[in-house]
Amino acid sequence: MEKIEILGLIAAALTTSAFVPQVYKAWRHKSTKDISLTMYLVFLIGIVLWLIYGIAINSLSVAVANGVTIVLALAIVIAKIKFK
Q1: Distance between CA 16 and CA 63 in Å, rounded?
Q2: Cα(7)–Cα(76) distance, integer angstroms
Q3: Per-residue model confidence (pLDDT) at position 21
Q4: By Cβ atoms counted within 10 A, which residue in 4, 31, 32, 50 is the most buried?
Q5: Other C-beta atoms lying within 10 Å of the C-beta of residue 76
Q6: Do residues 19 and 44 make contact, with C-beta atoms less than 8 angstroms apart?
Q7: Are 6 and 54 in contact, with CB atoms under 8 Å apart?
Q8: Largest CA distance in the chain
């Protein structure tokens, strides 16, 4: 594995893990009143495109980060709809 890909994996782990506290808080408190559904839907579309891009260029860091972030963003969207 190239050094630059390792750097990408570290960056991916940090930026993706930044969503975990938001997902945890939303589900724990069953509240998403201050979260914009529109923002998360647009964001979700963007990360799906990033995932496709990561797969197309064979970048493990881009693909994994965006695959995991899709799951986390979907959790927020589902919470937003469920706890409305």
Answers
A1: 12
A2: 27
A3: 94
A4: 32
A5: 22
A6: no
A7: no
A8: 45
Give the other-Cβ count within 10 Å of 48's Cβ: 15
Query: Which residue bears the tokens 């990561």?
Result: 54
What Rg do the C-alpha atoms of the chain give, in angstroms?
14
Enter the tokens of residue 6: 């390792």
- The answer to whether residues 84 and 35 touch, using CB atoms and an 8 Å cutoff, is no
Q: Tell me: the pLDDT tens digits for 27-81?
A: 999 999 889 999 999 999 999 999 999 999 999 889 999 999 999 999 999 999 9
Total-model pTM: 0.85
Amino acid of residue 35: I
d(CA 48, CA 62): 11
* Whole-angstrom distance, CA of residue 55 vs CA of residue 61: 10
